[in-house]
Design brief:
- The complex is a heterodimer.
- Chain A contains 14 helices and no strands.
- By secondary structure, chain A is mainly alpha-helical.
- Chain A has a domain at 92-272: MetI-like fold.
- The longest helix of chain A is centred in the first third of the chain and has 40 residues, at 21-60.
- The model of chain A is unreliable at 1-18 (pLDDT under 50).
- By secondary structure, chain B is an alpha/beta fold.
- In chain B, the strands form three sheets. In chain B, strands 3, 6, 7, 8, 9, 10 and 11 form a seven-stranded mixed sheet that branches. Chain B has a two-stranded parallel ribbon with strand order 1-2.
- In chain B, a hairpin with an 8-residue loop joins strand 9 (291-297) and strand 10 (306-318).
- In chain B, helix 11 (193-205) crosses helix 13 (223-237).
- The longest helix of chain B is centred in the C-terminal third of the chain and has 18 residues, at 417-434.
- Classes of the chains: A mainly alpha, B alpha/beta.
- At the A-B interface, helix 1, helix 13 and helix 14 of A face helix 1, helix 4, helix 5, helix 14 and helix 20 of B.
Chain lengths: 317, 445
């Protein structure tokens, strides 16, 4: 739609008075130099700890390096092996399930809880704390607690058994190949979704309250307010949440490592675990680097996609 | 995990001098597998202090490192030239990579000087020879055995199975009495399924066939190996282990021990390391049941009646790049020349003895007779030729990794027995090509 505003959005710069331009240029040059000076240390550190190993990763991914001896160049052998490696595809399919689950389940839970909290005028602080507290626990501790809770012999199933409820008797959350991955994800969601509640609540509280009031005057119900005001109002935060969840789903490690170790029979294996095993147990650091590099490319691809989504949003605003 | 993490952990390490020891100080990284500081101090009492008493000019810096990350940290440190002077590994399968990379000093002359061939069990010493050079010393030896609840057996008048037929009959009897034949579980240690693979390969195909496969005269796709793995799968499917595959995947070590001690299960197939764990569950105020152990029975005509698949659970080597190589070697010489300190450690802190020759009279009275008998029978079996092989000592890294990664898939049926055996053979061929098959000791040594 063409703007009807009489004020031009872009104002052509007025001709500078003679003698002022060099001073402004010099000031601009000076501030740019200061900015570069501030950036240089971080850039140097980045080049050292990311650029160096990053560049060497490309080299090692093309070798048979065992992490010990001098690597031999093997061309694209690791890449062709990766394409045919059923363990890799098994693990990455689990990362994909992780991703799909986390961009739906905790997102929906987080949005719903945040919206409900945003409608409460007073006393939300304790609720926010309750939702957020699990996120503050060390993931290893959380995992171990849930491992005990879901243990068939000593957890909830055992406690229910004592009062005559046997419904969980034949359920092996972490020992059944059909349940293991979903059980791990359930524990991860339990810890993570509170973070989303706090994130979305903060964003929703930034929305101009007069919009909600106007909608209510027009007869909007809670769902309408959520769908037409709250969701569009936190779109940048939503995009950010999608982005970090996507990247974290590719990197997930802690909960799987502690709860199942990727088992049973690889049914909850993820790429980060596979890389760890291949590099440090099977001593194939070159191949492990190739796997990790493939994941880095996938992560970069996601970042590019989100970059375009965000740019589209900014242009649409 | 990003590519950076993998590369950086190996490659982005600080530059430093090889050895990393000052003067006559020897560094050793060690894990006692116990959590409290008191036990760590006790470890030093038997593994450091006596050496210092004998060598007042020497110093030993013992650095405690968590067992599950020790190998990884040690590899990175050695690549950076900052590794310990004494290199410890979890067995020849792991150590052979260090040897191939040239990190392990040649100890052949040291062995001759100390007559180690006369004192150390021959199969264990042979397991440390790579390319004709002795590069690692066996510091802990173990075998796979059958533990059983002796009180439960006495109560029911049961006899231990001695062959396939009696094992099948026993399983039926035990299950009829509401007892699971074997306590088992790999939730605490997912790699534990390799113990069963090792056991069945020895019990069905037999040590001689395994030797042939390891040296390349037979293939893991041959009928005896397929039959071994098929029998293992059948027994798991029958619920002999933990009551079923899903239960096996869910059971933690403490639950496994408790099941055996409480009489919910009759036996437990596991390694020598459990000798020191069962005391917390048996013969206590709460549970008066007694435990005992027996050798693995042969389960086919091709296998001997009793088998001791032998493994080295810990190796010690001298860092070839150490600045204090002489002191490091002195430490190793001291370690293998003080059997009285070794037995004292076994008696006091439950430290497994070194694979050295000994007489029954050498064992202190305070050592549990079942533990003493265990090591005596291993020595005897070495002489009798009733020894076998375990994956963590005799398999190369790719074959070992393949078994750990895929044995559970075979149990769940995601991988057929044939495909599992084909994978084993392919992995072994790869290790062979890379020169990473650990030394194969003779089964009649």
């Amino acid at each position: 739609m063409a703007s009807t505003d009489a004020t031009p959005r872009t104002v052509a710069p007025a001709p500078s008075a003679p003698g002022r331009r060099p001073a402004r240029r010099s000031r601009r040059r000076g501030s740019r130099a200061v900015a570069i000076a501030f950036l240089l240390p971080a850039l140097a550190v980045n080049l050292l700890v990311i650029g160096g190993p990053g560049a060497s990763s490309f080299f090692y991914a093309l070798t048979d390096w065992d992490g010990f001896t001098t690597p031999s160049f093997t061309g694209l052998e690791n890449v062709t092996r990766l394409v045919a490696d059923s363990n890799f595809w098994n693990a990455i399919s689990h990362n994909a399930i992780y991703l799909l689950t986390f961009i739906t389940v905790p997102m929906a839970m987080g949005l719903g809880a945040a919206f409900m909290l945003s409608r409460i005028r007073r006393g939300t602080a304790p609720l926010r704390v309750i939702y957020f507290v699990p996120y503050l626990f060390a993931s290893v501790v959380t995992a171990q607690v849930w491992k005990n809770l879901l243990s068939p012999s000593s957890g909830i199933a055992s406690a229910l058994n004592k009062i005559g409820i046997t419904a969980l008797d034949d359920v092996f959350f972490f020992g059944d190949t059909r349940l293991a991955l979903f059980s791990v994800m359930a524990v991860d969601v339990w810890q993570f979704w509170g973070f989303l509640v706090v994130l979305f609540l903060a964003a929703m509280q930034g929305i101009d309250q007069s919009r909600f009031e106007a909608a209510r005057i027009d007869g909007a119900n809670a769902w309408h307010e959520f769908w037409h005001i709250a969701l569009p109002g936190i779109r940048p935060t939503l995009t950010f949440a999608f982005m970090i969840i996507s990247l974290w789903s590719l990197l997930t490690f802690n909960f799987v490592f502690v709860l199942t170790g990727g088992g049973p029979a690889g049914s909850s294996d993820v790429v980060a675990l596979l890389v760890n095993r291949v590099a440090f147990e099977q001593l194939q650091a070159g191949y492990a680097t190739a796997i990790a590099l493939a994941m880095s490319f996938l992560g970069a691809l996601l970042l590019v996609i989100f970059h375009f989504i965000r740019r589209g949003e900014e242009e649409g605003l | 995990m990003s590519a950076l993490a993998v590369t950086a952990s190996f490659a982005l390490v600080a530059c430093g001098d090889a050895g990393g020891a000052d003067g006559a100080k020897v560094t050793v990284w060690f894990d006692t597998q116990v959590a409290n500081a008191e036990a760590w101090d006790q470890w030093k009492v038997f593994n450091v202090d006596p050496f210092i008493e004998d060598n007042p000019d020497a110093q030993v810096e013992a650095v405690r490192v968590a067992a599950d990350t020790q190998d990884q940290k040690q590899r990175v440190a050695l690549a950076a030239g900052t590794g310990p002077d004494i290199i410890t590994t979890a067995g020849p399968s792991s150590a052979v990579g260090y040897a191939a990379a040239g990190y392990l000093a040649d100890l052949t002359e040291v062995a001759e000087r100390n007559d180690w061939s006369e004192n150390i069990l021959p199969w264990a010493l042979d397991a440390g020879v790579v390319d004709g050079k002795l590069v690692m010393l066996p510091a802990e030896y173990e075998t796979l055995i059958v533990y059983y609840n002796k009180s439960l057996f006495d109560e029911h008048g049961w006899q231990l199975p001695t062959d396939r037929a009696s094992l099948e009959a026993f399983a039926k009897t035990a299950e009829a009495a509401g007892v699971i034949p074997f306590a088992a579980g790999n939730a605490s240690w997912p790699a534990a399924t390799e113990w069963y693979v090792s056991a069945y390969l020895n019990q069905v195909a037999g040590p001689a066939a395994l030797y042939d496969a390891l040296v390349g005269d037979a293939a893991f796709t041959d009928a005896p190996f397929r039959e071994s793995i098929q029998m293992m799968k059948d027994d798991f499917d029958a619920g002999w282990y933990a009551g079923g595959v899903r239960q096996y995947f869910t059971t933690e070590d403490p639950q496994k021990y408790a099941a055996l001690a409480d009489g919910q299960a009759a036996m437990m197939l596991s390694g020598s390391w459990e000798l020191y764990a069962l005391g917390d569950y048996f013969e206590t105020d709460e549970n008066p049941h007694e435990w005992d152990w027996a050798p693995l029975p042969g389960l086919s005509d091709a296998a001997p009646e009793q088998i001791f698949p032998l493994g080295v659970g810990l190796t010690l080597s001298a860092n070839a790049a150490s600045k204090n190589l002489d002191t490091a070697i002195s430490y190793l010489e001291w370690k293998f020349s003080n059997p009285e300190v070794m037995w004292e450690a076994t008696e006091t802190i439950g430290q497994a003895p070194l694979p050295v020759k000994f007489e029954e009279s050498d064992i202190p009275a305070g050592v549990d007779p079942r533990i003493g008998r265990h090591y005596l029978e291993i020595s005897q079996s070495s002489d009798d030729g009733a020894v076998g092989y375990v994956s963590w000592t005799s398999f190369g890294p790719e074959l070992g990794g393949y078994v750990v990664d895929n044995a559970d898939k075979m149990l769940t049926g995601d991988l057929t027995v044939e495909a599992f055996c084909e994978g084993m053979q392919a992995a072994h061929a790869s290790d062979t090509e890379a020169g990473l098959v650990p030394p194969v000791f003779s089964s009649d040594s």
